[in-house]
Amino acid sequence: MARLIIMGGGVSGHTAASFARKWLGNEHEVVVVTPNALWNWIPSNIWVGVGEMSKEEVTFPLAPVYEKAGIDYRQAKAVSIHPEGNAEGDNAYITMEYTGQGKEGQTEELTYDYLINATGPKLNFGATPGLSDGKGGLGEHTVSVCTADHAIHAALELDACVEKMRKGERQAFLIGTGHGMCTCQGAAFEYIFNIEHTLKEKGVRDMADITFITNESFLGDFGMGGIHFSMGGYATSSKVFAESLYAERGMDWILGAHVNNVEAGKVTYESLDGEMDEQEFDFAMLIPPFGGVGLKAFAKDGADITDTVFAPNGFMKVDAKYDAGAYENWKASDWPSTLQNPTYKNMFAVGIAFAPPHTISKPMSSPNGTPINPTPPRTGMPSAMMGKAVAQSVVDMMANGATEPTHTANMSEMGAACVASAGKGLFTGTAAAMTVYPIVPDFEKYPGVGRDMNGTTGELGLAAHWVKHILHHVFIWKAQLKPGWTLIPE
Amino acid sequence: MSKHLNHIEPYSPQFGTMMPMGFQKFMRTCVLWQIVRFVAINFRMTMLILKSHH
User: Fold this and answer.
1) Could you count the other beta carbons within 10 Å of the beta carbon of residue A461?
2) Are B49 and A408 an interchain contact pair (Cβ–Cβ within 8 Å)?
3) Within a domain: residue A201?
4) N or C: which end of chain A has fewer CB within 10 A?
5) Does any domain span residue A316?
6) Residue A191 located in a structural domain
7) How far is Cα of residue A246 from the mean position of the Cα atoms in its chain?
8) Nearest-CA residue of chain B relative to A254?
């Protein structure tokens, strides 16, 4: 009998656990260690954040799903990894601290034969003064849609602004990134369109000034160095596509901004040209930067080997080329394939938890030396694909005699689909559907714009909105492991 | 067609991009056309998924 531990129960971890459980015989154990009691379909938090959905519609309890599936669920936060065991034995183990199941605060050690790190990000609100509450959580000046609870708070604040506008008080909305090193521009992009749509529906759009603030050097970078879509016979930059969406809706944008302070009603930011500026707001949704969750690693003798296992940003090192050097030297082949840790071959990292070799967007900084550029997106579809591929490899190594990973999930060889939708009405909503292949541009394989123009597309319309609706229901069905879940692709 | 365009301040950032006009806007909400696009988007995403698994 062997034991697989998956740390994290988000999109990538839940996918890995579900497939591993399905493919492994009952003689093997699958354990999920996650501090959360609820699974959250995060893309739909956007709709919660404008009051179109409830928390219950985007979450469900994990315990009954795992109990039915035969997965050992521990509602606990992973604290440290001991890949060589300790002085008393050679068995690798993790330590964890319970956050639920009646064992809150208790710590426990759990040995493993294989370990998948799918811990996701730490929402680093503390990186920007004022964005945080001083304890690492969300502060009082801005809102967030990163969790369902944050999104509920955002919807309440939005309602308060709508009331003020109905009474004739003009309101300024600021949506975007709350730091120069943020990722997830897509979430802010989708949220600003939902805000605009909601204000229009409520008849107060003319009382609102809506501004997007981003660390991207151009609209439509999306942390992927921009995308080119096939449009009207042209390979059209996502810059034009995104600018058009904002311009059509009368929204302004601020580019290349590192928000360095937030206070009541005002952010200050540094631009790529080194200028310091301010932007006032009545309502602000600013995405925090992501970091690793702060896991530590220890050798058999108790020595701290966190630097060996994790990159400085707290994400786990995998089979990526971390010494690629300057931007000019970057290649698609720098990106990891098996997601196996190079030092400890029974450890893998998936989703946001793996350390990328570098950004996808070109690194930039202000004349003051402040880095301002998006970090690579690796949520949603790519996360799930990584979870499934690593589960396949681990199952083959655990149960089928493989000595090396048998499956790969390389972001330079996989695509992603993104649907940014506004509104919930079947005939009143609107959406932008984008597909990109590959996520990391490969200029050797696809000379020109680095991507396959047959797989990289963007369009607006009701159809994309319908797709978004279907994805919401289908992925929650799949995550609940209901009949036919394996037939639904990642 | 220009009646479908709102005023855009010359030399503003918004002035430097493309703007949808009447036919484009109509097609975005034309249910028959959008059913066609719905099939097309699903087909495209399926192909993308198939290409992405290794």
Assistant:
1) 22
2) no
3) no
4) N
5) yes
6) no
7) 23
8) B13
User: What is the rounded distance in angstroms from the CA atom of residue A299 to the CA atom of residue A61?
Assistant: 36
Q: What is the CATH number of the domain that holds A48?
A: 3.50.50.60
Q: What is the DSSP letter of A340?
A: B
pLDDT in tens, A58-116: 999 999 999 999 999 999 999 999 999 999 999 999 999 999 999 999 999 999 999 99
pTM score of the predicted model: 0.94
B53 CA: distance to closest CA in chain A (Å):
7
Number of domains chain A is built from: 1
Tell me if A239 sits within 8 A of A226, measured CB to CB: yes
Contacts of B27-35 spanning 24+ positions with Cβ under 8 A = B27/A461, B28/A430, B28/A460, B28/A461, B28/A462, B29/A427, B29/A430, B29/A461, B29/A462, B31/A427, B31/A462, B33/A461, B34/A461, B34/A462, B34/A463, B34/A466, B35/A463
Domain assignment present for residue A393? The answer is yes
- The per-residue pLDDT for range A389-446, each reduced to its tens digit, is 999 999 999 999 999 999 999 999 999 988 888 777 788 778 899 999 999 999 999 9
Rounded to whole angstroms, the Cα distance separating A389 from A350 reads 9
Of A3, A50, A53, A46, the C-alpha closest to A28 is: A3
Residue of A nearest to B15 (CA): A247
pLDDT tens track for A231-246? 888 999 999 999 999 9
CB contact under 8 A, B44 and A457: yes
Antiparallel, parallel or unpaired: β A114-117 and A107-111:
unpaired
